[in-house]
Amino acid sequence: MFADPEARLDALSDLSQRLLAAARARGATQAEVSCSEETGLNVNVRMGEVETVEATRDRGIAVTVYFGQRKGSASTADLRDSSLEATVEQACAIARYTEDDSAAGLADAALMATDLREFDTWHPWYIDADRAIELALASEAAGREFDARIENSDGASVGTGASLGVYANSHGFIGRDRGTQHSLGCALIAGRGDSMQRDGWYTSALIADELESAASVGRKAAERTVARLAPRQLNTGEYPVLFAAESARSLIGHLLGAVSGGALYRRASFLVDSVGTQLFPSWFRIEEQPFLHRGLRSTSYDAEGVATRESALIDAGVLQRYVLGSYSARKLGLQSTANAGGVHNLQVAANAGDFESMLRQMGRGLLVTELMGQGVNSVTGDYSRGAAGFWVDNGEIQYPVDGITIAGNLRKMFEAIEAVGTDVDVRSHVRTGSILVGRMTVAGDTAED
Question: Which residue intervals define the domain Metalloprotease TldD/E N-terminal in the entry (predicted)?
Answer without folding.
Answer: 31-95
